[in-house]
Design a protein that fits this description.
By secondary structure, the chain is α/β, with parallel strands linked by helices. Helix content is about 45%, strand content about 20%. It is globular.
């Protein structure tokens, strides 16, 4: 079950392993997934979703999401926040909403001093599954397998966010091998 942001662990300053936070933006539901980039491999720290609430007007939802994001960022202290890049949606209204959610996530990450990285959903799918067009359920199963989880985190937006964080870890490993 997803935990509320106030139930998240408080990460101490100077943790030896960096925390990478993935964010799947939206204004009704914003998925998040945090992993610790441990030398033995990535480990899940937290996953869930921030709910903006369907009935409220957009500015109110964005404000509530920002408030929850601030709690999330101050408790988990990520060194990197990976936000899903804007996609071209068929529905202009939903593209706008996702863009507004992205803006809140990007600004909150910067204010909290995290490095901000952005990937397309297809990049995360390709990194985690090997197929940029993979279905969300397949991505969720692969994320759970890579993190050694017996249960797939919910909602699906949380596993999308974990996939973004894992993509960052995969790319860092590649860069380190080259360097």
């Amino acid at each position: 079950t997803p935990m509320s942001t106030s139930e998240l662990p408080q990460i101490p300053e100077g943790l030896a392993w960096p925390v990478i936070l993935g964010i799947d933006p939206g204004t009704r539901l914003m998925g998040y997934g945090a992993i610790i980039h441990h030398s033995d491999g990535p480990r899940m720290l937290a996953a869930g979703a921030i709910r903006g609430g369907p009935s409220k007007d957009v500015p109110t939802r964005l404000g509530e999401i920002r408030r929850e994001l601030d709690v999330l960022l101050s408790r988990l202290r990520p060194s990197v926040v990976v936000v899903e890049h804007a996609f071209t949606a068929i529905n202009m209204q939903s593209a706008l909403r996702v863009g507004e959610g992205r803006g809140v996530a990007l600004s909150a990450a910067v204010v909290h001093g995290a490095e901000v990285v952005q990937y397309q959903a297809s990049e995360a799918k390709k990194s985690v599954v090997g197929d940029g067009q993979a279905k969300k359920e397949r991505v969720a199963a692969m994320v759970a397998a890579e993190l050694g989880l017996e249960v797939v985190p919910e909602p699906i937006d949380a596993t999308d966010a974990l996939a973004l964080a894992l993509t960052y870890v995969h790319r860092q490993r590649f860069v380190n091998r080259l360097g």
